[in-house]
From TrEMBL:
Annotated catalysed reactions: D-fructose 6-phosphate + L-glutamine = D-glucosamine 6-phosphate + L-glutamate
Subunit description: Homodimer.
NCBIfam families, per database record: glmS, PRK00331.1
Known role: Catalyzes the first step in hexosamine metabolism, converting fructose-6P into glucosamine-6P using glutamine as a nitrogen source.
Top enzyme category: transferase
GO cellular component, one term: cytosol
Protein name, as recorded: Glutamine--fructose-6-phosphate aminotransferase [isomerizing]
One GO-annotated biological process of the protein: fructose 6-phosphate metabolic process
The protein's Enzyme Commission number: 2.6.1.16
Annotated organism of origin: Acetivibrio thermocellus AD2
Enzyme active site: C2 (nucleophile), K602 (for fru-6p isomerization activity)
Transmembrane segments: none
Length: 607
């Protein structure tokens, strides 16, 4: 949530900041701004709205200078308007701040600073930080930032410009992501790598409570006691093109089209001589025997991947699994101990609720294995074991390819655990591995067949409410299909277990109600057909997702989108793609901003 960027070097700062913000707009896009040190004064340009509006403003009256900070906002405190936009500047005009996170004790600090004569012009928590640093500034900006962050409670990634420092600026982080880009005669800060990738591949990944002093030639890192910290350079091994649209109209479509590749990248390198080898995961057969329970904890789409994870781990490894949304888990005093394994799933590796759930689990002694997409992210660094999903950068707010790779990782884990525990035999193990390796080809077929979904969407995009019903793994899939539709098309939608519908919700089905039914579980086809008949009898229009060989469904559903005849057990990795495409085309038909849906941001780094 919120993207921050900073530059110092010999080039004009404004275009570099704007360019960086463009790459971070997925993190928030209700307002944006820059602050640049222009002839000894901090000049701020900011406004409500998308980045194009800021660009127009900057082009009319461009601040000139080669040191600056920028911000793209997802509002938490105070509505999106010009005044609440970042950067915020202290009353003296000496300090400018951009911030991602939430200052939890801002009211207390505000009261104190107001009594000291500071005037507040915005409703944000961030403005407090600008005044607080100003209050503590007595000629040493690093010390002022350190003193301030030691008084702040909450989460932050900060970029701080000081009028007295024409050739340096400061940054700091806690619980919100921040990296430093190391250039040649220039240096950068950013919330995420794509913002600086055009200029450098060498980065420092900052740890909590680290403070950085950047000049054009040097980057010094300190801890919150002011002691120097030695950092390791992290080399980014992907290129700018993977974070660009590459000719696609939307990132979301590009990312769905990448699904075959990223599933292959996630699965194939982990199969060696017919065996699953899970990178550096050091969980032995002996460890597995001692595991009492597995908890899978995540948010949103990653949580839905976890629901599939529960089914498959329990089915294969026969270890009891609980799956929980991270924001609930961390506050419910969960019954976990050192006998339990917690599997954390996160694309960004920075989701604050998930990160705090991880910390809660470790505090209680559990071992934490995370499935993460972003290398070096907070969740990856704090976990005992990490299994990376190789989905590459995911820019569209709606997660697609990351989900397919999260499922792939969960299948690998389930198979590996089950085999090590002796709960499945070699033949079954090898058979499922072969099926997993074939998944990319099956997704390619689904993508090639997308016209039928586009046509259906063009006829039904005016639907007011859509139900997704499924049984077993198809129920887990329905949850994800429903979320995807809601978040990008703004159509109300609910996911129900097929058998549960008649316990209440079927009352909502009337003439013309759209019902989407994944029917990929062979053992549950008959039951689903009954459910389809029940809703059809009440006037529903049914779109089914079924295997090619399933001729029964064609007789009852209005339209059937087929997927290849994959094994029911691994069907979710293939069958989710038509649901993602359905959400995409519905949103497109409605004229929605597919990649940047309203009220959302890609990475949720505030509670
Ligand atoms: O980065 P994470 O996987 O931790 O993010 C979790 C959710 O915020 C995320 O999946 C969200 O639900 C997506 N917008 C769904 O498309």
């Amino acid at each position: 949530m919120c993207g921050i960027v900073g530059y110092i070097g010999s080039r004009d700062a404004a275009p570099i900041l704007l360019n960086g913000l463009k790459k971070l707009e997925y993190r928030g896009y209700d307002s944006a701004g820059v602050a640049i040190l222009d002839n000894g004064n901090i000049k701020v340009v900011k406004c409500k709205g998308r980045l194009e509006k800021l660009e127009e403003k900057v082009n009319c009256d461009a601040p000139v200078g080669n040191i600056g900070i920028g911000h793209t906002r997802w509002a938490t405190h105070g509505e999106p308007n010009d005044l609440n936009s970042h950067p915020h500047i202290s009353s003296s005009g000496k300090i400018a701040v951009v911030h991602n996170g939430i200052i939890e004790n801002y009211l207390e600090l505000k009261e104190f600073l107001a009594a000291e004569g500071y005037e507040f012009v915005s409703d944000t928590d961030t403005e407090v930080v600008a005044h607080l640093i100003d209050y503590h500034y007595h000629g040493d900006i690093v010390q002022a930032v350190i003193t301030s962050i030691n008084e702040i409670e909450g989460s932050y990634a900060l970029g701080v410009l000081c009028r007295d420092y024409p050739d340096k600026f400061v940054a700091a982080r806690k619980d919100s992501p921040l990296i430093v880009g190391l250039g040649n005669g220039e240096n950068f800060i950013a919330s995420d790598i794509p913002a600086i990738l055009e200029y450098t591949r060498d980065v420092y990944i900052l740890e909590d409570k680290e403070i950085v002093l950047l000049s054009d030639k040097e980057v010094k890192v300190f801890n919150n006691h002011g002691l120097a910290v030695q950092k390791k350079v992290f080399k980014v091994n992907w290129d700018v093109a993977s974070a660009e649209k590459a000719g696609y109209e939307h990132f979301m479509m590009k990312e769905m089209c990448e699904e075959p590749k990223v599933v292959r990248d996630t699965v194939n390198p982990r199969i060696k001589d017919g065996n699953i080898v899970l990178d550096n995961i050091r969980i032995t057969a002996e460890d597995l025997k001692n595991i009492r329970k597995i908890f899978i904890v995540a948010c949103g789409t990653a949580y839905h991947a976890g629901v599939v994870g529960k089914y498959i781990i329990e089915k294969l490894a026969r270890i009891p699994v609980e799956v929980d949304v991270a924001s609930e888990f961390r506050y419910r005093d969960p019954l976990i101990s050192d006998k339990d394994l917690v599997i954390i799933i996160s694309q960004s590796g920075e989701t604050i609720d998930t990160l705090f759930a991880l910390r809660e689990s470790k505090k209680k002694g559990a071992r934490v294995l995370s499935i993460v997409n972003v290398v070096g992210s907070s969740i990856a660094r704090e976990s005992d074991d990490v299994l990376y999903t190789w989905a590459g950068p995911e820019i569209a707010v709606a997660s697609t390819k990351a989900y397919n790779t999260q499922l792939s990782a969960l299948y690998l884990i389930a198979l590996d655990f089950a085999y090590k525990l002796g709960r499945i035999d070699r033949d079954y193990y090898s058979k499922v591995i072969e099926e997993l390796k074939a998944v990319p080809r099956e997704i390619e077929k689904v993508l090639a067949n997308r016209d039928i979904i586009q046509k259906f969407a063009s006829q039904h995009y005016n639907a007011k409410s859509i139900f997704f019903i499924g049984r077993g793994l198809d129920y887990a899939l329905s949850m994800e299909g429903s979320l995807k539709l809601k978040e990008i098309s703004y159509i109300h939608s609910e996911a129900y277990a097929g058998g549960e519908l008649k316990h209440g919700t079927i009352a909502l089905i009337e003439e013309g109600t759209l019902v989407v039914c994944p029917v990929t579980q062979d053992s549950l086809v008959e039951k689903m057909i009954s459910n389809i008949r029940e809703v059809k009898a009440r006037g529903a229009v049914v779109l089914a997702i079924a295997k090619e060989s399933n001729k029964q469904v064609c007789k009852v559903a209005d339209v059937v989108v087929t997927i290849p005849d994959v094994d029911s057990f691994i069907a979710p990795i293939v069958a989710v793609t038509p649901l993602q495409l359905f959400a995409y085309y519905m949103a497109l038909q409605k004229g929605c901003d597919v990649d940047k849906p309203r009220n959302l941001a890609k990475s949720v780094t505030v509670e």
